[in-house]
UniProtKB/TrEMBL annotation:
Start and end residues of each ABC transporter domain: 9-242
UniProt-listed SUPFAM superfamilies: P-loop containing nucleoside triphosphate hydrolases (SSF52540)
Lineage: superkingdom: Bacteria
Pfam families for this protein: ABC_tran
InterPro entries (alphabetical): AAA+_ATPase (IPR003593), ABC_transporter-like_ATP-bd (IPR003439), ABC_transporter-like_CS (IPR017871), BCAA_Transport_ATP-bd_LivF (IPR052156), P-loop_NTPase (IPR027417)
Keywords associated with the record: Amino-acid transport, ATP-binding, Nucleotide-binding, Transport
The species this protein was found in: Azospirillum rugosum
UniProt keyword Phosphoprotein, yes or no: no
Protein name according to UniProt: Branched-chain amino acid transport system ATP-binding protein
Any one GO molecular-function label of the UniProt entry: ATP binding
Length: 258
């Protein structure tokens, strides 16, 4: 890998998809330590597919994936978790018939039953997510949608990862909980956690992030500082599904002039 020593995760010319249908085509992205990075684009652009490949949930057809400089292209998701890459799936995925505590403990499976580390992780996360602490004995399926999303994020953080990938963290949430989720992610970033998220609320995501990628038809078409992308007229049009004829990749040097 030729990236910066600050690069935690890198997709290098990745192509992947489902069955024999390519969804992501030659996508390259780098995710730097300590930054919040969003991946945005229209429905079907390949955003979620790209980050699933980054997390090891989809096989990379061609190209490579690196974590902290190590080639993990063929590694299973649990091995990437062991390298510090956690994943929060779309849709507030919790085990509804298990308690909140049991869901959290499931997130700590790679700790090998080390009770001290598990309890320390739970104590840390209850401080970050007080509502989770108040619901420890409650069945996860009886929580509100916003509370379930908090639990899903907390569960992903049980192993103290260095980077967390979130797929549509605000999907289906009431506005109140959208605000809470974004506030919590900002708080987590303040602790040094690197945050990567796919998000449909594009303007909100860019306003919240340090860096951004815009995808269209499986390719990265814009990349740069989030505030620069937020002010780019072509990107604004792309949000609305109208892709300009002169779509081109914005590299870092160009982003400041967008």
């Amino acid at each position: 890998m030729d990236g910066s020593p600050n690069t935690l995760l890198e997709l290098q010319d990745v192509t992947t998809g489902y069955g024999d249908v390519p969804v992501v085509r030659g996508a390259s992205m780098t995710f730097e330590k300590g930054l919040i990075t969003c991946v945005i684009g229209s429905n079907g652009a390949g955003k979620s597919t790209a980050i699933k490949a980054a997390a090891g949930l989809l096989r990379v057809w061609s190209g490579r994936v690196f974590v902290s400089g190590a080639d993990v292209t063929r590694e299973a998701p649990h091995r990437r978790l062991g390298r510090g890459v956690a994943f929060v799936p779309q849709g507030r995925i919790v085990l509804p018939e298990m308690t909140v505590r049991e869901n959290l403990e499931l997130g700590a499976h790679i700790l090998g039953g080390d009770r001290q580390r598990i309890e320390e992780a739970i104590a840390r996360l209850v401080t970050l997510f007080p509502i989770v602490g108040k619901r420890m004995g409650q069945l996860a399926g009886t929580m509100s949608g916003g509370e379930q999303q908090m639990l899903a994020i907390a569960r992903a953080l049980m192993t103290s990862p260095s980077l967390v990938i979130l797929d549509e963290p605000s999907l289906g949430l009431a506005p109140k909980y959208v605000d809470i989720v974004f506030d919590k992610l900002r708080e987590l970033a303040g602790t040094g956690l690197t945050v990567v998220m796919v998000e449909q609320k594009a303007s909100r995501a860019l306003s919240f992030s340090d860096w951004g990628y815009v995808m269209h038809t499986g390719q990265v078409v814009y990349a740069g500082a989030a505030q620069a992308l937020l002010g780019n007229e072509n990107v604004k049009r792309l949000f609305l599904g109208e892709v300009p004829e002169d779509v081109r990749l914005l590299v870092e040097g160009e982003a400041g002039h967008a």
